[in-house]
Amino acid sequence: MPADQSRSDEELMERYRDGDAGAFDALYGRHKGGLFRYMLRQCGRRSIAEELFQEVWLNLTRARRTYTVQAKFTTYLYRLAHNRLIDHYRSQAGGVPVSFEDDDSPALESIAGERRDDPALSADHRQQAARLLQLIGALPEAQREAFLLQQESDMSVEDIARATGVSRETAKSRLRYAIAKLREGMQEFQ
Amino acid sequence: MSEIFRDDGTERDARLAALYRTAAREEPPPALDDAIRAAARREVGSRPQRVSSPFIRSWRVPLSIAAVMVLTVSLVTVMREEAPEILSPPGGVRTVGEADQMRAGPAADAGERATAIPKPLVPPAPRPDSVGLKPPAQTGSSGLGLRENRVSPDPAPGSRKDMAVAGRMETDAPTAPALAKRALPQAFPEAVDMRDDKGVVAAEKRRQSAKEESPASPARAAEGKVNSKSDSVSADIVPRESSRARVAAAAAVPPSASAPASRNSDTLQPGTDLPPDKWLERIEDLRRQGRLEEAKTSLGVFRKRYPDYELPAALKAWAGL
C-alpha cells in the first residue's frame, strides 16, 4: 500500500485502531524484523523468541482500541516487548537471562549460515560480525537491551528510558557501558 | 580507534552499527507473519468498529444520569397528572367538607374549578368506570382521562338539563361503583349539570327513542327502572379529574342517603343550579305534588351544600328537624 508507506507509525496505528487492517500490515512490515531480533537476542532461543514475538503483536492488536498517541510508536511497541520479556524472565527458574555464551545456539548458527551465503561479505567482515554477536550476547541483559533498542529501532536515550521504564540516567548508563564493552571487545580487529 | 570513542559514549557507533546490520538479519518465519496478520484482521473484523472520542467517553456517564433523571421526572409528572391516587399518601384523603368546597356552586370561580385537580377520596377499588358523567365543558378539559362506561340519560320528562343530569337506574344488586353512580349527582351536582353538548344530544336522542318504543317509559323512569343495556351507550371519554371527583363525592355520601336519590332522576338535581331560596321553593313544590321522597332527597342535597342556611319552619317541621 503506497499510501501507508508515507504515513508515520503513529498514523498507521491510529488507522488500525479505527479498523483499517491494512495499516497493521504496513506497521508490522516495518517493525517485525527489529522486534524479532530484539526478542531473539534477549531470550536466546528461537522458539521462545517466536512465541514471545507473537504474543507482543497480539497484545498490540488487543490493545488497539485504547491506543492514543502519547509517544513514538516504537517506544510503545518495545515497551510491550520489554514487559513481556520481564514476565518471561520471571517465569524462568534462574530469573534473568539466558546466556548467549553458547555458540551453538540456533540463532547464531543461522546467522553464520546467512553470512556464509553472502558473497559480498569478506571472511574478515564475517568474522567481525560473528564476534560482535558474541559480545552482544555476553552483555548483561539490561545493557544488551539498551544497545538493541538503539540499533533496531533507532531510539534515543530518552526513548530507551521510556520503553524500559527507567530514568534517563539509568538508560544512558546502560547504553554507555554496553557500547564501551562492545568497542573493547572489537579492538582485536582494529 | 579514534572514531570509536567519542562524546559521552552513547552515540550510535557507525562501525558497530554496520557490523550489527551485517550480522543481525533474522526475520520471523513467514508462517508466523501470516498468523499474526490474520489475528490482527480478525481483531478488527470480529468486533464492530467503535470510534468514540474521548469527549464522548468522558460525558457518557453524566449524560446517562441526566437521561435517567429526565425520564424519572417525566414519569412522575405524568403519573401525578393521570393517576394521583398512586402517588398520594394514604393520609391525603379528601374530606366531605373539601368535597363541598369543590362544588361551591355557581358562586365559585369557574377558572379555579377548571384548574383544580381533585384529590382522590377513595382507594382505586370503586373506580368510576360505571359513573357515566361528562366533564364540565367549560373547564377546558384536555380530553385526557379514563374511558368511562356509558350511561344513558334517563328518559324522564323534564328540561333538557334535567335529562342531561339524569342518572341511570341500577340493577338489583348494586355494586360499589353503582352506588357511587347513584350518589354522584347529589354530591357533585354541578359536574352533572355541566355535561357537554354531545352528552346532552345523546341524552335527547335516547329519550326520544325511548318514547317511541314505549309510551310508558317516562313513568318507568320515574319509578327508577333499570335500563341495563344503557351502560355503554352514551358516554364519551371523560377526563380523569372529573371522574375522580365524582367517585370521591360518591364515597362521601352514605349509600343509604344516595340510594333513594337514584330512584327518580327528575329529582336528583332539583334546583341545584338555583339560588338557595329558589331551590327551597322547588323542594316545597315537590312536597306539595306529593313527591315526598324526591323532596327529601333534594333537601338532603341542599343541606349538604348549604349546611348553615336557615330552612323555613314548615320545611323544618316536615323534615323533622
Map the helices and strands.
The complex is a heterodimer of chains A (190) and B (321).
Chain A: H1 2-5, H2 9-17, H3 21-43, H4 46-62, H5 73-91, H6 106-117, H7 123-138, H8 141-153, H9 157-164, H10 168-185
Chain B: H1 14-23, H2 30-46, H3 54-82, H4 84-87, H5 96-102, H6 110-115, H7 160-165, H8 176-187, H9 189-193, H10 197-213, H11 217-222, H12 240-252, H13 255-261, H14 276-288, H15 292-305, H16 313-319
Distance between the termini of chain A: 44 Å
Helix-strand string of chain B: HHHHHHHHHHHHHHHH
Which value, in Å, is the CA radius of gyration of chain A?
A: 17 Å
Largest sheet of chain A: none
Report how far the terminal alpha carbons of chain B are from each other.
Answer: 134 Å
Largest sheet of chain B: none
Helix content of chain A: over 70%
What does this structure look like?
The complex is a heterodimer of chains A (190) and B (321). Chain A contains 10 helices and no strands. Chain A has 190 residues and is mainly α. Chain A has one domain. About 11% of the residues of chain A have low confidence. By secondary structure, chain B is an all-alpha fold. Among the domains of chain B are: 161 residues, no CATH class; 52 residues, no CATH class. Chain B has 16 helices and no strands. The termini of chain B are far apart. In chain B, 36% of the residues are buried. Classes of the chains: A mainly alpha (190), B mainly alpha (321). Chains A and B meet through helix 3, helix 4, helix 6, helix 7 and helix 8 of A and helix 1 and helix 2 of B.
